[in-house]
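quick one before i forget lol
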Amino acid sequence: MGIFEVRYTPAARDDLLRLFDFLLERAQTEEDFDTAQEAIDAIKTAVQRHLSRSPFIYRKAGSSPFLRELIIPYGSAGYVALYEIEDADTVNILAIRHQWEDDYH
């Protein structure tokens, strides 16, 4: 199995911005601002590292074997990336949410 290209849909990019804005709105110190960027960087790094190599090993999200979720631990909780394996070379990130959110946006 080769390396998969990992692509973000516009909705997933919007989710990253939404999550970053959420963290910035609550930031009170310089360290909080750094933590906001670190959280987004952690999401991007985990997505690239895990899904470019082995997207089929993460949990299914529905009836399709190609629709899956990656759990990304961060701090006391973490994030969840919904993705679809498009073909033998491509993974599309469809949405990203915080674990405490009810559902994807």
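fyi Residues 30 and 37 are 11 Å apart (CA to CA).
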